[in-house]
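Protein modeling request. Please complete all fields; requests missing the sequence field cannot be processed.
Requester role: graduate student
Desired output: 3D structure, token encoding
Chains: 1
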Amino acid sequence: MRVKTLMTFCGALVVLAWSWGSPPVPVSDAAAQGGEVATEPGALQPQAEVRVGDNVVFAIRAARAGRSPAARAHDANEALQEAIAANALDVRVEYTDSAAVVYAGGRPIVQLGTEDAVLAGDASAAVHADRVAGKLRAALASEHTRSVVAGTIFNATLAVVFAVLAVLLLRSAWRYGDRAANWLEANPGRVPDLHVRTLKLLSRGAVRAALSLGNVAGRWIVMAGIAYAWLIATFSLFESTRGFTAQLSGALLDPLATLLSRAGAAIPLAAVMALALMALLLALRALRLFFGEVASGDATVSWLPRDLARPAGILAQAGLVVVALLLAGPVLSGNPDGAVSRTGMVAICALALALVPLGAGVAMGVATLFGRWIAVGDWFEVGSHRGRVTRIGVLEVILRDETGAEVRVPHLARLWHPTRVCAHPRRIVELLPVERALATPALADKVSQTLGRIGAEASVRLVGVTETQATLELAVTSEDGDARSACLWAALVEVEAARREASRL
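Delivered output (505 residues):
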């Protein structure tokens, strides 16, 4: 109801402005007669009025050159209408031997002679012509002001109408965009897959995501187009903003025209690129199907294990894409420095940059192997990882820790962490805190004897004393991989025996 009321009000404003802005056609006796009337020189003719709009500017009372006052007024009114239409505001008088001619712009309006001045009560034709020119100048200025005001009101009314239409169109675009988004969300199963015959290009989810993205982008593009059209239409209505119309049109249409011309010139190349892209997609799909069959066990090849089929397929597809960008790009585009070949070169550079850590690890592995920095059987420590070396590869060192677990330490880790290589037999040193009352030389001897059964060079030293406890340092040299744990267990047994003996006393 509000929209209907607003549209009715705008329509009324348009009608009112149109009726005000359209100048009425002057009605006079000259318009009715409009032709030449033969008169006698001494005959008195009725005067005829010359009008600008509804206002009488001057009257013609005398016949001249065989034309009656009505015919002369008719010609003057037509000339004034042309001057008003041409927006001619400059009025001047030119004098001849027998008459004075009043001009509006470049158009002669009326010729005035002595007889016109006599009947009008002026002293001469020049005086009469100057007075008519002054009245005509004032009337044309008044008519121009009225026309400008009426045109401004009419244009303002049109601007309001355009704004209402733009708001309605924007609301409609937003509403239809919401409906499309709600339909895609409520009906995910009705969106089909994208097929080319039997080749599946996009899955249903990908198609739905593309449609959702296109709906969002399309809605904003349509709304921007509506706002742009409203700005162009509104700015073109007013003289002060008409210059911005050309700037706005050029800002959008010039790049669009350039883009269309370039797109038209690139159509043959685009067709070739589309065929090449289709061939690349088919090759990628063939690779994916082949490695998928190997991974599922439906196909068997001697050179590719089943568990390596999927990663090998990913590597093969990535390599095919890089080769296509690097080699096929210059062939298709005809430009070795084009965007396609540059993209392939960027991909190669990115791949090389990503392989820098792997290359550094390989370099460290080669140096370790051929420099014999580590031997199988050595005790090897890198940071928090320690164990016996069981195998040395190009990329990593495999350790067997004290718990029997296998630890793979990459050679690259040795660039950030210190490395300790222990020869056999290795020296084990551990700290054991005990109660201060139990820390006696007798306990140290018993623990030392027990450690002597585990390895050689066993020793027990007191390295710290507090009010409640003492710290013993246990050391032994052993080849046993679990010597550290055995050393601690043996020491705990002796400490527990000393604790029981002290409780009996």
